[in-house]
Every structure is written in structure tokens, then in C-alpha cells.
């Protein structure tokens, strides 16, 4: 029996503007393949500790945590370099 549990960052929005995401580790409770017009879609049911629940294609459940987290912009060096170029 495979006891390993897969986790995704919870994609739930925490405000109306969509700027903040939940981001807690959401356990993948069930994985399945959904048929679509573009072919089979890898899908999953996930649930996070806050009670958010999602059921759909993995593609729609994944998001870029580094880009979405507030206050993380300073860690992206390319942005800093671009900013300096514009200022001169
Ligand atoms: Zn959540």
C-alpha cells in the first residue's frame, strides 16, 4: 500500500481582489484522470487545513507561490535590475 501523501499549495483566494492566496499545504485526497476534448486531464481532489476544498484539473490547482505572495517582490533580482534601468 502506498501511504505517501502529496501536497499542493492551497490555491484559495483570501480576499476579493485575488491578491492573497491561502497557501497552506492541501492534501491530495484523490487523483483521477478526466476526459476532455483536448485529451485526458490529470485531476485531483484537495483539501487544506482551513477547510478549502477543490476538485478539478491539476493545472487549475497549481499557482506560482513566489509571484503571488505579498512582500516577496524584492527576492526577484530581475525586477530590481529592470527598476534600476528605468530610473536612470
Ligand atoms: Zn486553503
Extended strand count: 4
Number of domains: 1
Shape: globular
State the secondary-structure class: alpha+beta
Q: Please summarize the sheet with the most strands.
A: 4 strands, antiparallel
Radius of gyration: 17 Å
**Termini gap:** 61 Å
Helix run count = 3
What share of residues is helical? Answer: 10-25%
Overall mean pLDDT score? 81
The strands making up the biggest β-sheet line up spatially as 1-2-3-4
Detailed description of the structure:
About 20% of the residues lie in helices and about 35% in strands. The protein has about 90 residues and is α+β, with helices and mostly antiparallel strands. The protein has one domain. The longest helix is centred in the last third of the chain and has 11 residues, at about 75-85. The chain has helices spanning about 60, 65-70, 75-85; strands at about 5-10, 25-35, 40-45, 55. Residues about 70-88 have low confidence and may be disordered. Zinc ion binds near residues 22 and 52.
List keywords for this structure.
88 residues, alpha+beta, 3 helices, 4 strands, globular, binds zinc ion
Topology (elements, then pairings):
Layout: E1 7-9, E2 25-36, E3 39-47, E4 53-57, H1 58-61, H2 65-68, H3 77-87
Antiparallel strand pairs: 1-2, 2-3, 3-4
Bound molecules: zinc ion.
Zinc ion binds at residues 10, 12, 22, 24, 48, 50, 52.
Briefly, what is this?
The chain is of the alpha+beta class and 88 residues long.
Amino acid at each position: 500500500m502506498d501511504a505517501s501523501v502529496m501536497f499542493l499549495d492551497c490555491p484559495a483566494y483570501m480576499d476579493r481582489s485575488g491578491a492573497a492566496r491561502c497557501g497552506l499545504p492541501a492534501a491530495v485526497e484523490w487523483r483521477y484522470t478526466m476526459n476532455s476534448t483536448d485529451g485526458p486531464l490529470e485531476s485531483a481532489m484537495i483539501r487544506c487545513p482551513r477547510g478549502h476544498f477543490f476538485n478539478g484539473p491539476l493545472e487549475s490547482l497549481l499557482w506560482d507561490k513566489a509571484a503571488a505572495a505579498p512582500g516577496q517582490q524584492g527576492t526577484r533580482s530581475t525586477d530590481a535590475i529592470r527598476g534600476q534601468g528605468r530610473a536612470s
